[in-house]
Amino acid sequence: MIHRDNKYTNGVSKLMKIEEEQNYQCTVEATITVAGGKWKPLIIYYLLSGTKRFGELRKLIGSVTQRSLTLQLRELEAHGIISRKIFAEVPPRVEYSLTELGFTLAPVLETMKAWGDAYVSRQRKKDH
Prior knowledge:
Layout: H1 6-20, H2 27-35, H3 40-47, E1 52-53, H4 54-61, H5 66-78, E2 82-87, E3 93-98, H6 100-103, H7 106-127
């Protein structure tokens, strides 16, 4: 059985309302708003391999705080990038997965990873 946390749902509704009022100067700004920041790209990257629970994401990312991860997940859900499924169990179980829209970011993340691989390799060569 799935239930919704009203406090959580209200927070997502507020984010969606703010988003509807956003006027982007450039479509790159829209991309950065939706998928940019310190944690969102990592969340999306790790969800590309499949559904994850909150604790799994937190372990994979490492240095993210519980609050920051929660806020980033809420924003991604509000933008339609991820879906959140709550199971009425004890203890409660929540799973996150990419939506169809979320999977359209795969080429962006793959390009970022390739750039990061080249950058790190270059930095390592520079240090030696």
